[in-house]
Amino acid sequence: MSAADARTAALQGPKARAPILDAAALPALFASFLAHDAILLAVSGGPDSTALAYLAATWCRARLAEGLPAPRLFAATVDHGLRAEAAREAQAVAALCATLDMPHATLAWEGGKPAHGLQAAARTARYALLMDEARAKGATALALAHTEDDQAETVLFRLARGSGLTGLAAMRPQSRREELTLLRPLLSVPKVRLVATLAAAGVGFAEDPSNTDPRFTRPRLRALAPLLATEGLDASGLSRLARRMARADAALEAAVDAAVADLSRAPWIEAEPVRLDLAGFFRLPEEIALRLLNRAVDFKGHEGPAELAKLEALLGYLRAAGEGEPAAFRRTLAGALVAIHKAALTVTGAPERGKMRPSR
After folding, report:
1. ∠ CA(124), CA(130), CA(136), 5° rounding?
2. Which of 1, 59, 224, 350 could bridge to 332 as Cys pair (CB 3.0-4.6 Å)?
3. Would the CA dihedral through 4, 161, 190, 233 be positive or negative?
4. Model confidence over 102-125: pLDDT tens digits?
């Protein structure tokens, strides 16, 4: 455990630091696993993912012993090729998984590595490798070992970058990535409990030095955790904020669903423009209008998610153009063309960059 983790643990109550030894606690943690016949676990060898493998295997064994069905569990470790110790750590995970009767694979990130944005590139490669392995194993879900501490860091990370309400909802216990379900059964569990669980079970784990490398943002936020906790911004409080943001986000998305049904001139299909009643759009509360605009741009665009600040600016331009008699309006964002035409707000796919018709 790092010094920062130890200081944070000292600020938490005894229950938050207690190992998870009671088998009766596991069904609540792994209830989401029951919806899947096969699940791939991402196990790096660090304490969080090692605890995930150990606890999930313990839960599965208990169910099978009682004659209850349990999903097939597989594990995979990604060797990014960035540290000499990584291969040895993957071998240690394989040895642990053998004792847990859990098939294991080591996945290598091959090819050149970028000079800048290394952590983001590694994360993208890691997900791609894990998802390919999940498909190969016939798994419908990928289980990740994000903890309450990771959730708190994500809230701070996104707050520092000006995220909106959806971003501050941070990670969800369940989400989708392409055709796979991402499961995070430990999202409400403090990291210190997982470390204590492994210590009590006599299970070893590795420590990745990049987790404390101040060149990266998350380790810097991690180092601030003890100081923030003394002011009430501990992992539990920040995770609670994320849950409340997620609840509000769901309510707002339901309001957007209603606005789509009320304002759309026709069902949204790939081959046709999205058409929304302009007067009704301008009557929407700003947050609902912003989300509806984002949904339409995402549906018709081809350049990935639109930045929130650019969406806000686009909505401002639309409102300015729509005051009084709507004027001609055409703007592009994220590969979508947004226009006002005959009392309708229309969103279509914009020409790809470099293929636009030259000006005369």
Report:
1. 140
2. 350
3. positive
4. 999 999 998 888 878 888 898 899
